[in-house]
Every structure is written in C-alpha cells, then in structure tokens.
Request: fold
Amino acid sequence: MGWNWLGLTAVVVVVVAGVGMAPGGQHAATQPATQPGTQPAVQGGAGGAVQKEAERMTYKDPSYGFSMGVPKLGGAGKERAVAVLFAGPPENATAPNINVLVDPGETTLEGYVAPAVAGLKDAKMIGQKVMEVSGRPAELLEYERTANGRTVHILQLVVVGEGLTYVVTCTCAADTFGSHEAEFRRSLESFRLPAKGG
Reply:
C-alpha cells in the first residue's frame, strides 16, 4: 500500500519536550480564517482570552471533511519541541509519519549528529549523506531500529540553522518502507528554511 496522502491527518503539537532523534491527511491545507480586506472577528474564551480570527489558520481535512481553526501558537520555544506531525493510518501496528522537531541552541552539524548517531547503538545504520539545505549544513540519515518487537525504517534530515536545529523524521514499519520511500524522500527534498537573516 503506497503513501496515501488523502488518508493522512495533520496534527499540530504545541510542545513535546525531551523528544530526541528517535523515531517518532493530505498535506495540511491552511489558510487565513478571514478573507483579506474583511474585518476580523474578535471572540472571548471562557478564560477571557481574546484572539482575532485573522491570527488563526484553518486546517481542512480532505479525508473526513472536518475543518478546525488552529490558533497561532506563536514564538520560538526555549526547549526542543515537535513543531508539526503528519501521520497516516497504522500499517503493521506502526503509523507512517513525518514530524519536524525544532531544537534551539547554537551547534554545528557534526556536534549535533555525532552524539545522536552514537546513541543509536541498537540501530542498523543504512546510510549518511552530508549536504546543504537552504544554504545551511545538513545531513540525511537512514536507519532501522526495533522497539517492542517492531522494526521501523527511518529517514531523518538534520539541518543546522541560526540558533535552531531542524530534525525532519520520516518513519514507517520496515516492511512497508518500499511503498513510502518515494513520498518520504520528496517531502525531505521539499524542506526549506527562510533566507538567512530573513
């Protein structure tokens, strides 16, 4: 079964501290909640919080038809956090997924990747490739590891930016990797950072 973008759901995770380099809808379609040139609505919540609708994005799920206003959760955190997670229906008890982890702090590519790889003692390393993404140092890792009797295949892109390291992880059951590989690689190839200083 191939990577079914129509069957995926996008999940926005506010903060998941302590997530490391371990394995972990349709591409989330977001748009401003109000049309340009219209007056944004202001609503008060139970706690008295007020948020302009123009500051919200709308996620529309193409598989199930629901939509939901997602608040602008704002600001860069000071701890490692999963910024976004895309997950499909489970296959062999493992949901194929792509997540983006953002890790604040100054580092180098080698300073970030070397200890992470050293910590993957139980993993079968398949490949490592140093590259550039948006003019920043990056490395693509590919490995398999087994946890709870299930083997997962992981493609992981590490990009070191200015004060932030981005870790994009694609995970699926090892025996389904062949049907997901092309989409995983396309997703990783599409990852971009804003222009330096922008």
The chain has one domain: 5-31+53-190. Helices lie at 109-118, 177-190. DSSP finds two helices and twelve strands in the chain. The first helix runs from residue 109 to 118.
